[in-house]
Write a structure and sequence with these properties.
The chain is an alpha/beta fold. It has a single domain, classed as Rossmann fold, CATH 3.40.50. Helices cover about 45% and strands about 20% of the residues. The chain contains 8 helices and 7 strands. The strands form 2 sheets. The chain has a 5-stranded parallel sheet, with helices on both faces. Strand 3 and strand 4 form a beta hairpin. Helix 1 runs parallel beside helix 7 and helix 4 runs antiparallel to helix 5. The protein starts with 7 loop residues before the first strand and ends in a 6-residue tail after the last helix. The structure holds adenosine-5'-diphosphate and magnesium ion. The site of adenosine-5'-diphosphate has 9 residues, from helix 1.
Length: about 200
């Protein structure tokens, strides 16, 4: 099912800290397809104008979109059958993807990972809200031919074997993965009290 340019574009997205990079590394190894970290492209090509109050880069989204398009075209011309793009920013870019995987994680796990990264309270809060409402999944829908959510190891393994078959030119049955809902965990955090103003 490759697109016009003949390359299958796989997007791995999700809230910062959910495990995109780790999953994409495993996927890349398993299916023999290169993974491109959007954050590395932003950094490498200096596609940002500055840093906001919470410490996040202010990204030149139009230029990033063009650069990722160019990377796709180059990969396609060099004969690659697929490319894996990785990053939370993919959800906000006006790009189109063949298959998107939205990596999900427990909100409590996310808090500890983001605190470990030294994120400020406001940034942790922002990301908790994003994860609980599935911001990335909602944003990427409509720009991806298919979307799968994966949180536990089994779900990730199902996505990997599906993509492995797809990339090798087979016509695998689409995996039947559940839609993941974080509202219950969010409410628990709200009711038990938390230091994130939720
Ligand atoms: P992202 O790229 O979405 O920001 P990372 O892949 O960098 O997330 O993962 C964030 C942190 O969580 C890392 O320390 C990583 O080792 C850990 N992590 C990611 N996936 C898992 C997993 N399946 N099991 C345990 N730890 C994980
Ligand atoms: Mg990452």
């Amino acid at each position: 099912m490759p697109k016009k340019e003949g390359i299958l574009v796989i997007a791995v997205t999700g809230t910062p800290g959910v495990g995109k990079t780790r999953f994409a590394g495993e996927l890349s190894k398993a299916i023999g397809v290169k993974a491109v970290e959007v954050n590395d492209v932003v950094e490498g090509e200096k596609l940002f104008t500055g840093i906001d109050e919470s410490g996040s880069k202010i990204v030149k989204m139009q230029e990033l979109k063009k650069e990722l398009k160019a990377i796709e075209v180059r990969a396609s011309k060099s004969g690659d059958k697929a490319i894996i793009l990785v990053g939370h920013l993919l959800a906000d870019l006006k790009l189109e993807y063949d298959t998107s995987i939205v990596i999900r994680a427990s909100l409590r796990e996310l808090v500890s990972r983001l605190e470990e990264r030294g994120y400020q309270k406001e940034k942790v809060r922002e990301n908790l809200v994003s994860e609980s409402i599935d911001y990335c999944g909602a944003q990427i829908s409509g720009r991806s031919k298919e979307i799968y959510e994966a949180e536990d190891a089994d779900q990730k393994a199902i996505v990997v074997s599906y993509l492995k078959a797809l990339v090798s030119g087979k016509h695998p049955e689409k995996p039947n993965l559940p839609s993941i809902n974080k509202m219950e965990e969010m409410l628990e955090l709200v009711y038990e009290g938390n230091s994130y103003g939720l």
